[in-house]
Amino acid sequence: MTRAHDAVLVIVPAWNESRNVGKTVREILAVDAGYHVAVVDDGSVDDTAQVADEAGATVLRLPFNLGVGGAMRTGFTYAHRKGYRRAIQVDADGQHNPADIEKVLAGLNDADISIGARFSDVGDYEVRGPRRWAMVVLARIVSRVAKTRLTDVTSGFRAANAKAIAQYVSYYPSEYLGDTLDSLVVACHAGLTVTQVPVAMRPRMHGNPSQGPIGSTVYLARSVLALGLALLRRPRRLARSEDAA
Ligand SMILES: Nc1nc2c(ncn2[C@@H]2O[C@H](COP(=O)(O)OP(=O)(O)O)[C@@H](O)[C@H]2O)c(=O)[nH]1
Ligand SMILES: [Mg+2]
């Protein structure tokens, strides 16, 4: 049994981010040298692991690419085993500002999961067209499930307390967007609470996002459908058990 400790584990999913991950890790440690940083190198074919190690992170190496969700589940499993009571995801590409980590962690005073959310009056992050509509619909659906108003449910900049870490170890899908959306809905159904904290997102430092505009729009549309179905199913199941009671 590992003893629980108060340090915060910052989990950084990274796939071929050798140009960004070093700066990201150094920035995190510059904000607070007490943070423990775990970079999950997800089968990168570049120097991501070495660069992360040299910058002062613990590197968890996956033998092949699992996707962001698989990498995060690895990070949460590590957090759970080592007894961390708070963990937060910060992307390797520089989009999540380490200066906001403390702010997102503070959300854990009110809930089990705290989301660093764009579109909450802060910053100038803009998404347009069908992608924007899909994100608005998704936010409405998940807000209903979470019983609180959420505006950015696909943000990866999220903090978890011990209860949420344990929940994520048992369920965290590896598929793109499942890592944010599906994991959130399942956590809410398991009784966990969610809050959001406004943050500004920065542009990616180098390289391209793993999904282009078409890929991410298709995934978003699919997620709207899947979550809509999950929502339709849920009340019926409850009604049946009430009947039985
Ligand atoms: N572990 C892992 N990380 C990934 C993968 N794809 C992207 N990432 C990381 O997840 C973060 C967000 O990815 P990104 O492609 O920028 O997605 P976006 O910001 O949602 O457009 C970055 O730190 C990436 O390095 C993957 O397949 N595995
Ligand atoms: Mg990104």
List the helices and strands and how they pair.
Blueprint: E1 5-14, H1 21-31, E2 36-42, H2 48-55, E3 58-62, H3 68-82, E4 84-89, H4 101-106, E5 113-117, H5 129-146, E6 158-161, H6 162-170, H7 178-189, E7 194-198, H8 213-244
Parallel strand pairs: 1-2, 1-4, 2-3, 5-7
Antiparallel strand pairs: 4-6, 5-6
The chain binds guanosine-5'-diphosphate and magnesium ion.
Describe the structure.
- This protein has 245 residues and is α/β, with parallel strands linked by helices.
- It has one domain (4-243): Spore Coat Polysaccharide Biosynthesis Protein SpsA, Chain A (Alpha-Beta Complex).
- 45% of the residues lie in helices and 17% in strands.
- The protein has helices at 21-31, 48-55, 68-82, 101-106, 129-146, 162-170, 178-189, 213-244, and strands spanning 5-14, 36-42, 58-62, 84-89, 113-117, 158-161, 194-198.
- Strands 3-2-1-4-6-5-7 form a seven-stranded mixed β-sheet, sandwiched between helices.
- Helix 1 (21-31) links the parallel strand 1 (5-14) and strand 2.
- Helix 1 (21-31) packs parallel to helix 2 (48-55) and helix 3 packs across helix 6.
- The radius of gyration is 18 Å and the shape is globular.
- The protein starts with a strand and ends with a helix.
- The model has no long low-confidence stretch (mean pLDDT 89).
